[in-house]
Design brief:
The protein starts with a strand and ends in a 5-residue tail after the last helix. About 25% of the residues lie in helices and about 35% in strands. The chain is built from three helices and five strands. It is α+β, with helices and mostly antiparallel strands and about 110 residues long. It is globular, with a radius of gyration of 14 Å. It has a five-stranded mixed β-sheet with strand order 1-2-3-4-5. It has a single domain, classed as Aminopeptidase (3-Layer(aba) Sandwich). The longest helix has 15 residues.
């Protein structure tokens, strides 16, 4: 049986779900130096289709957001999944930063 674990890969600016060395889920981000400190812009979250329906995206989101908050960074929810997740999990409210044009401008195109 596989042991799926979330991991941080800061050198790649993403969090992953690791299934015995295979990355089956990813939460991509970019960090932005805001006026009040570093803000982590989450812009794309995905779990491979064959792993769907197991609650893994929520596990990945919680791990990524908890790690971000622990590091003292703000959360900028551009990704639709992360946006919906923080709307349901009000404990992240104090760490949310409203999405602004300067956040969108630093994201990869396409």
């Amino acid at each position: 049986m596989s042991q799926i674990q979330p991991r941080a890969l800061p050198e790649q600016q993403r969090y992953v779900l690791d299934d015995n060395g295979k990355h089956i889920g990813r939460a991509h981000y970019r960090d932005y130096q805001g006026q009040d400190g570093v803000e982590r812009i989450f812009f794309h979250t995905v779990v491979d289709e064959e792993y769907g329906g197991q609650g893994l995206a929520g596990k990945l989101a919680a791990f990524a957001l908890d790690d971000t908050v622990s590091a003292g960074l703000g959360i900028v929810p551009v990704c639709p999944y992360i946006k919906a997740f923080v709307a349901k999990h009000k404990e992240y409210g104090p760490d949310l930063v409203a999405v602004a044009p300067h956040h969108i401008q630093i994201l990869p195109k396409g």
